[in-house]
Amino acid sequence: MIKSRAAVAFAPNEPLKIVEVDVAPPQAGEVLVRIVASGVCHTDAYTLSGQDSEGVFPCILGHEGGGIVEAVGEGVTSVKVGDHVIPLYTAECRECKFCKSGKTNLCSSVRTTQGKGLMPDGTSRFSYNGEPVYHYMGCSTFSEYTVLPEVSVAVIPKEAPLEKVCLLGCGVTTGIGAVLNTAKVEAGATVAIFGLGGIGLAAIIGAKMAGASRIIAVDINPSKFAIAEELGATDFVNPKEHEKPIQEVIVDMTDGGVDYSFECVGNVQLMRAALECCHKGWGESTIIGVAPAGAEISTRPFQLVTGRVWRGSAFGGVKGRTELPSYVAKAQTGEIPLDTFITHTMGLERINEAFDLMHEGKSIRTVIHF
Ligand code: NAD
Ligand code: AHE
Ligand code: ZN
């Protein structure tokens, strides 16, 4: 057992508490990682809000981290002590039906226990005062030390600054990957991006990389438009400034609708708008935002009959162990400008401020340093 400073979510809607938890050693096929830095993603706030059907409390949130391997369990071969890693909430075992399909990044190897806040053997490595504390999304990066399955870490070059490339553990990779891997936006296409947080802004980078001719940035918080423009957005729409439904505004702006849209908020009404602003015959909308458990999407089936396509994307369709090193390389050359996303940095003891800044719309990403 080692001691680890961690931000524990003891119950939904309560501030995280910084306490010293006990961390059990990595078991067979597992690794112990010292977290150097972690971003705070809206999904952490979503789970803390109690709306996640997989939220188990008490737990250690956080899934956008970077760290260094401190110990490995029996039989671990692909990672060694001292390796720099990014934890993966979408594992990549390379052996399951999903990994072998070539059609998805949704590996099934550890997903069932991960959704219950447990390691693959059905137990937790974290405890506090002798009581179990649950894992989160297979990562729990709001802890100085965490334990992960070997298949849930991507090894990256030691030169890459962990306090920046941690953002590739979720938000930045998700937005870029959704555009390039899931939607496969082509050069010259028109794109609308709903929601300009870490995910939507990364989707703008993806659209720019793809050579989109027009990138329409949509947000109800106009303070997000400046960064969107810096990253390549060409048009800016604040739904609050329009009487008409926002899908109609975009259809009017684009001679019948966009080729691709992305919902990066988690609002089911906006998901409908994102689908319905797509062009008849070929427009494709990708849902990235996570809606509350129980929420449902709706539209007239006629929207699909007339050629629009509705898709979804998890972690941008990216297979982490194989593909994250190339994202890190692009961050190293500046092609993925991570600095633009990091609006705030702070120590773990201030982590609740990071959630406040997100809810107030004042941050893109806060990076927590350990
Ligand atoms: P964020 O809070 O940083 O950004 C959300 C943005 O949406 C804000 O700028 C906000 O002003 C804007 N917004 C809110 N309501 C709006 C509306 N009605 N119309 C237009 N804009 C609106 O969040 P984030 O970290 O960028 O995450 C965005 C969503 O993506 C969340 O639902 C998160 O859970 C989800 N997510 C999904 C994946 C995945 O793999 N599918 C990965 C990461 C995050
Ligand atoms: N537990 C949630 C599911 C939330 C969800 O959809 N998560 C995304 C990643 S969000 C990262 O910020 C995802 O990858 N989904 C695919 C998967 O396997 O979880 C709920 O609502 O039940
Ligand atoms: Zn996330």
From TrEMBL:
Its EC number is 1.1.1.284. It is an enzyme of class 1 (oxidoreductase). GO terms for molecular function: alcohol dehydrogenase (NAD+) activity; S-(hydroxymethyl)glutathione dehydrogenase (NAD+) activity; S-(hydroxymethyl)glutathione dehydrogenase (NADP+) activity; S-nitrosoglutathione reductase (NADH) activity; zinc ion binding. Pfam families: ADH_N, ADH_zinc_N. It comes from the Bacteria. One of its GO terms (cellular component) is cytosol. GO terms for biological process: formaldehyde catabolic process. Its cofactor is Zn(2+). Residues 11-368 form the Enoyl reductase (ER) domain. It catalyses: S-nitrosoglutathione + NADH + H(+) = S-(hydroxysulfenamide)glutathione + NAD(+); S-(hydroxymethyl)glutathione + NADP(+) = S-formylglutathione + NADPH + H(+); a secondary alcohol + NAD(+) = a ketone + NADH + H(+); a primary alcohol + NAD(+) = an aldehyde + NADH + H(+). The keyword Lyase does not apply. Keywords: Metal-binding, NAD, Oxidoreductase, Zinc. Has high formaldehyde dehydrogenase activity in the presence of glutathione and catalyzes the oxidation of normal alcohols in a reaction that is not GSH-dependent. In addition, hemithiolacetals other than those formed from GSH, including omega-thiol fatty acids, also are substrates. Also acts as a S-nitroso-glutathione reductase by catalyzing the NADH-dependent reduction of S-nitrosoglutathione. NCBIfam families: adh_III_F_hyde. Belongs to the zinc-containing alcohol dehydrogenase family. Class-III subfamily. This is S-(hydroxymethyl)glutathione dehydrogenase. It comes from Halopseudomonas phragmitis.
